Please model this.
Amino acid sequence: MDTLLALMNGFGVALEPSKLLFCLVGVFLGTAVGVLPGIGPALTVALLLPVTFKLDPAGSLIMFAGIYYGGMYGGSTTAILLNAPGESASLATALEGSKMAKAGRGGPALATAAIGSFVAGLIATIGLAFLAPWLVEVAIKFGPWDYFALMILAFVTVSATFGDSPLRGLTSLFLGITLGLVGIDKLTGQARLTFGVPELLNGIEVTTLAVGLFAVGEALYVASKRFRDPEEIIPIKGSLWMSKQDWKRSWAPWLRGTAYGFPIGALPAGGAEVPTFLSYSTEKRLCKYPEEFGKGAIEGVAGPEAANNASAAGTLVPLLTLGLPTSATAAIMLAGFQQYGLNPGPLLFAEKPDLVWGLIASLFIANVMLVILNLPLIGLWVKLLAVPQPWLYAGILVFATMGTMAVNASPVELGMLFLFGYLGYLMRRFDYPVAPMVVGLILGPMAEAQLRRALQISLGDPMILLENPISATLLTIAAIALVAPFVMKGLNRFKAAED
Amino acid sequence: MLSSILKRGVLVAVAVAGLSTAAFAQLELKIMAPAAPGGGWDGTARSMQQALTASGIAKSVQVTNVTGAGGTIGLAQLIGAKGDGSQLMVNGFVMVGAILLNKSPVNLSQVTPIARLTAEALVIVVPTDSPIKTAKDLAERVKADPAKVTWAGGSAGGADHILAALFAEAAGGDPKKINYIPFSGGGEALAAMLGGRVTAGISGYGEFEGQIKAGKLRVIGVSSSARLANAPDAPTLKEGGVNLELMNWRSVVAPPGLSADQTKVLSEAIGKLAKSKEWTEILKARGWDDAYLGGADFDAFLKAEQVRVAKVMTDVGLVK
Model:
């Protein structure tokens, strides 16, 4: 009951007109820059930090919260419309979302992303308000071996993105894992596969690979077959809004996506990518229309998008309760706290309840504002698809280039973008799926670092992976998920032979 | 496209509006943080921006981030901006190690040193329920078998790693054998500490402060020469019998090829910054020590640290 009372007090703070205005400004700016691939929420908050020097602590943190939620929200728009995931967390959204957009269902795709984000944000923020102190106790129990097991589970789910040929999918995946080796080895500080190019020391940027393979590769592919076998883009088919059927197919993925996103986001090294992959693969398995996957299934947008937004709320759990910044944005928000002499951590809830609960309440408000701001925009966004193809794809190329230059203005980075773009074209031309490659680049280095850490802590004993209940459970689930389809297939064949 | 450019314009306009408070000063500066937003160098650059403009020392200050390779990508860019008297770069102890580790083609002898600004003591902590109570206990363990003591800290070759190596050496163990586990960012390392999965953790005092005050972590020792003002109960490593001192300092440097006048303008501006009320307040809020050191003294200090770090990194086996 205390929590509820505190939350009500929080709403008292957040509903002051000036705070509402800060929240609105934050949400608007966050969405606006979130739409641009390249400028992520971290850079936005960093850019705006000086503006808040003169604001009171509550006001500025409320604005940050708006920017953070807005940024997570805006990322899905380009992923769906332009097949250009601006951040790694919207990769899974792009898979089905862009197919839906091409088939004239961009409206429902954007709507399910927006409402799914709203639902997920709402539930996850309730989770943040009521479960944070308990959840964080569980989260810090997660050791490197548990993270490694979680990564293995995520790896198993990659097969959902393989398309028709497992061999081609695996080839693509291993290309991605190899790219993940490039750069300074985090554990020993030695350079790997950098060939003396200093720009490669930091590894390959996920967004550069994703935008290159997805957006640039597709633009080249479309251009290459423009006169032989032109692909039709249907701007709008059927309703712009979600049909009854769409609602029916969306609500369960929203909830499941939230169930993945919030707890994994709350883990100190959980991140937003793993839950989106898990959600995508779960929806593919549970979907009543599996044949639609790869051609634009609404579940494949609803689930990952909800997971993505729920993880954003999850990230705030360790930040507020322990003072652990687990993402770059959270690190800058921490600096924002410190600017006012506040130290997030075990004592923050007790020392500054107004501030913390005001922040949590404004997350609820930011969520409502986002959905109000974004739903009317859908009609406008979808019109983008009616732009003639040559213009549209030329625009995508300009957009992709500018985004990459905004993140890291270096010729090497730009060269990589177009190299990956050409590779993406070749892979499409010869029918290799591109998504597993990006997944490999994201998960490979994480899995490697966690495994090596686990072994360092256990002094080289691999049994540590099986001795811990969480990692043992996760590995078992992964093993079942890997083997089950083959067993089922065998059983079916066996049954067929009996008949 | 146009709308996105406009949006970006709005962002910049909002950012600039917040800065243009002191209209009288003429100095326009660019400060590069050779790391991503959110880290220590970025924090230092943005704090400098805040204090320089609020105190009226500079008319405008623009902060840019150039990420990569422990700051050496940014360093290469700074060296490329030869003769630019409006450009500064934040750097520090960690960059000295990164240059050696990455076999960087550029190094700190190529820049114009301006001043050291801050220094932060590192702290060695253990979980509260650990049997290790003092620096001496930990030193005995390290001496017995350095490989069995697991350390959690920041990136490989950084200040935390070097402190762990120096500790092993001071304790009489082989620094090449230390079992140091680098974590990206303080968050994960702190979680490993709280979960009791590693023997000891190293970080700046500020990052562990909340947990120390909440009684979840115990301080084994701070790496400064005297006890910290904001933590008078925490003993120094020297008091605990481990003869060791290390400060994670941060400084500003300028491009090579500056005229004597250009260097003077920058040195004076930073000198004024270090004495300003605004800067003092930021240092207090962030828990950074004022470690201002300018002119020839800083030149000498920078040279000495390069020699010292090179020796440690060779001892640890990070650099062959």
